[in-house]
Backbone:
């Protein structure tokens, strides 16, 4: 079975678990079970993002869609995480209200459905972890491939690893739901449901913030790539014929794409095309090693810059 089909199976199984937790959460009057379902929903959406990255990333570009579906991953991540934030804030509000006005909870549903969720999430995490390990092994066997492919596989594995961590956290939270159900069954401490709901919700808000921030900044075309300006300048200005650079643009449209473009100003000396290409190729090669898999360099002379400045004035 292919990676895509395995991930799709994980999505289907977990959607069934989510529906079950919501239905039985309502029947048992347990907000903790519903909160676990909503957390699982957010993490399933994260797995959906992983699936989209694998499927849409394989699609070829067209004349109309020259970038393909690069933005689909970050767009889905932002919308899903924003929805999760709104939902969790509402759950906190309801949990506090429930804490002040306790209600009787049927713990049997919490224990049974929570236990099933532990098994389903545990198996999902195991499958995703195996997919990531096999991908890393495949990459190691082909370490002689081009740097672009190396970067692609590396980021793809990181995406799968992220989905694995999401499923693992779901399994741990489901364990907490089962433990809470056991406490309610034996000791009738109903307020523990509200406490767990608040804890789960705060954890989810904290856990989801980096993705919300990253996806928003990506959609705004901001530079979220870990590279200092000083290090970049050392690479670009390493050749003595380079005077300066301008119109720098760095952005990350998806988890596995790092884009950079800029104008390179060279000295006004006689250089043939081969010499110029040697300068730009050397810069591009070093940027590839830093993780940039889409590099665009336009070469200018200082005369062009002067003409451009005069036109502005």
Residues:
């Amino acid at each position: 079975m292919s990676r895509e089909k395995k991930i799709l199976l994980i999505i289907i199984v977990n959607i069934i678990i989510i529906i079950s937790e919501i239905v039985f959460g309502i029947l048992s009057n347990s907000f903790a079970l519903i909160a676990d379902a909503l957390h699982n929903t957010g993490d399933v959406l994260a797995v959906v993002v992983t699936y989209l990255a694998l499927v849409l990333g394989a699609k070829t570009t067209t004349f109309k869609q020259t970038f393909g579906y690069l933005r689909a991953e970050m767009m889905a991540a932002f919308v899903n995480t924003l929805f999760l934030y709104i939902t969790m804030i509402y759950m906190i509000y309801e949990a506090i209200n429930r804490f002040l006005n306790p209600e009787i909870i049927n713990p049997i549903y919490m224990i049974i459905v929570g236990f099933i969720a532990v098994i389903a999430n545990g198996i999902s995490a195991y499958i995703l972890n195996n997919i990531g390990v096999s991908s890393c092994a495949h990459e190691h066997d082909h370490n002689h491939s081009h740097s672009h492919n190396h970067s692609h596989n590396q980021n793809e594995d990181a995406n799968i690893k992220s989905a694995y961590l999401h499923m693992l956290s779901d399994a741990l939270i489901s364990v907490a739901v089962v433990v809470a159900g056991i406490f309610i069954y034996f000791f009738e401490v109903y307020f523990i449901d509200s406490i767990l709901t608040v804890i789960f919700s705060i954890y989810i808000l904290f856990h989801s913030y980096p993705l919300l921030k990253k996806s928003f900044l990506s959609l705004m075309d901001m530079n979220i790539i870990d590279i200092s300006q000083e290090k970049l300048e050392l690479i670009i200005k390493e050749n003595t014929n380079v005077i300066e650079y301008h119109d720098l643009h760095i952005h990350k449209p998806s988890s596995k794409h790092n884009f950079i473009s800029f104008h390179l100003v060279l000295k006004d000396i006689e250089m043939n095309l081969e010499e110029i290409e040697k300068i730009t190729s050397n810069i591009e090669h070093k940027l590839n090693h830093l993780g940039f898999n889409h590099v665009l360099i336009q070469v200018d002379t200082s005369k062009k810059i002067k003409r451009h400045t005069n036109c502005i004035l």
The chain has two domains: 3-219, 229-312. Residues 147-187 form the longest helix (41 residues). The chain has a mean pLDDT of 83.
